[in-house]
Amino acid sequence: MKAAVLYKPNTPLEVVEVEQQGPKAGEARVKVKAAGVCHSDWHIINGDWTMPLPMVLGHEAAGIVEEVGAGVTTVKPGDHVIFSFRPQCGHCLYCSIGRSILCDGHNDTPRFMLFDGTTRMSVKGEPLNQLARIGTFAEKVVCPAEQLVPMRKDMPWPQAALVGCCVPTGVGAVTRCAQVEAGSSVLIIGCGGVGLNVVQGAKLAGAATIIAADLLDGKLAYARDFGATHTVNASSANVVDFARSLTGGRGVDYAFDAIGGEATTLQILDAIRPGGTAVIVGMAAMAVRAPVTPYMMALQEKCLRGTMYGSVRPNLDFPHLVDLYMQKRLKIDELVSRTYRLDQINEGFQALRSGQVARGVVVFD
User: Fold this and answer.
1) In which element (H, E) is residue 217 found?
2) Domain co-membership, 186 together with 119
3) Can 59 be counted among the known catalytic residues?
4) 43 belongs to the catalytic site
5) Cross-strand partners of 29
6) pTM of whole model > 0.85?
7) Which domain CATH number covers 241?
8) Residue pLDDT, tens place only, 120-145
């Protein structure tokens, strides 16, 4: 079978023949049908995030279960599943209080290996690490069964793959993390795959004013299609001033940073009104720091918080998001700007970096 492997930072992924072991107890083998090209993978490719290499990248995907190991009861051969890049042990503190995205039940093993401390892929005997214990830029994946969420079988594959990352990360940031109320004013900075889902999450929540900011007019056009009531090009206008001009000078109720950077974090804090909430959604490079002013945050009762994976509960929220799509209440078709073969994966990352796509998806036979 073939997989896309990163051997060194700042080099193209190499599509190579790999060997794969079968699933052990608690694991399953999945034939991957579609995998999204996500900015988080790019952070690893360009060295923003330090990871042990070589590694099979990819974490946003869907496929068909082919085989299960001993003791697996949550999925069976033939099931259509969406990969979750976070495990859910079901018994740790966070799983027990409904915060399964923060599950720490497997913190004794690295997040690039399966729970026994090994991987299931290799090249000529050399082990290949698997991003998020899955590594979905591969024709088949062996991974923990608890990272697989069954879904209905009439969901198309490219759209299903995006329910594995950018859709819940964006929609969940609004509905699960911030819990935006109907009638609220919302600012979103960054209109890539995640940011567009923050936009449509705000629309689903009934926000009255939805302001989208980006540097590219093409992405702002996407944002209007996804529900933005106002857009602003951050290269030619002051985003904070623009947001205040639409909210009586006070600032917005909620602001979301879908990029993850020093400047954008400070912008969302400035853009919210006293008592407002700013949420960091985009995953920044590890070295990024943002100097906030505690005095002003306390004086104005501003809240700054982060969200991982939209604070969703994959086993519950992934099927719900699929249903919303099938009911035509959630836009995912419009996210799939281009599809690629596995051997075109580097073209997908080039398009991602240049802002040519909302989301690219690798489609497997």
Assistant:
1) helix 217-226
2) no
3) yes
4) yes
5) 67, 142
6) yes
7) 3.40.50.720
8) 999 999 999 999 999 999 999 999 99
